[in-house]
Specification:
By secondary structure, the protein is mostly beta strands. It has a single domain, classed as Pseudouridine synthase (2-Layer Sandwich). Helix content is about 15%, strand content about 35%. It contains 3 helices and 11 strands. Strands 1, 2, 3, 4, 5, 6, 7, 8, 9, 10 and 11 form an 11-stranded mixed sheet that branches. The model has no long low-confidence stretch (mean pLDDT about 95).
Length: about 210
């Protein structure tokens, strides 16, 4: 694998781009392990504090010590951090709107489902979106998450007949391209200095993003 794209690094945090098909968690072949290898220190303290689905790519922040991990986790848990995604979906997506659903995670099938009834394991899922462009039967949308459910964007859009391009779990037939879901903007406060940090990265220059000149 090519070197990971690191946008910012200091003694407390690393902000980088997670490639698709790579686990964001600390296990063999996961993002923290590859960062340690790139830093030249297999024992370096690199900790995941939030996740992206394996198929999703884009911006992530990781902690480089326990204090930074604790503070970033607190921000995520108590205040939330700013996350904005870009996605390309099949169909004509409305100009803007919100999606509020009850979602259930089926761990055995490794899938999430929108449901109408509350129950064990059912959680609220909320996002806002804005359509940035339409072309060739596809819509480019900006998505802001207010909750962080597993496969939330993929599941909620698919449930409305707007599956993501490259989707392999929530739409048929499968498409031979990466999932068109990219963590585009990320903002949070530095866990030590308290400085407000914001990062932005454009999706890769490949289909379907190139339809909009990315």
């Amino acid at each position: 694998m090519d070197k990971l794209d690191i946008l910012y690094m200091d003694k407390d945090i690393i902000v980088c781009i997670k490639p698709p098909k790579l686990l964001s968690t600390d296990e063999p072949g996961g993002l923290p392990e590859l960062l340690r290898r790139q830093l030249g220190d297999e024992r370096a303290d690199v900790r995941t504090v939030h996740r992206l689905d394996r198929a999703t790519s884009g911006l992530m922040v990781l902690a480089r010590n326990s204090a930074a991990a604790s503070e970033l986790s607190r921000q995520i848990r108590e205040e939330g951090i700013g996350k904005e995604y870009l996605a390309v979906v099949h169909g004509h997506c409305p100009d803007r709107g919100s999606m509020r659903d009850l979602m259930y995670r089926d761990k055995a099938r490794k899938m999430s489902f929108v449901t109408k009834e509350p129950g064990k394991g059912v959680q609220e899922a909320l996002l806002d979106y804005e359509t940035l462009g339409r072309k060739d039967g596809l819509s480019l949308v900006s998505v802001r998450l207010h909750t962080g459910r597993t496969h939330q964007i993929r599941c909620q859009f698919a449930s409305r007949g707007l599956p993501l391009v490259g989707e392999r779990k929530y739409a048929l037939p499968e498409e031979d391209c990466p999932l068109a879901l990219f963590s585009h903007r990320l903002s949070f406060r530095h866990p030590v200095s308290g400085e407000a940090l914001s990062f932005c990265k454009e999706p890769p220059e490949e289909y379907p993003w190139i339809l909009w000149g990315n």
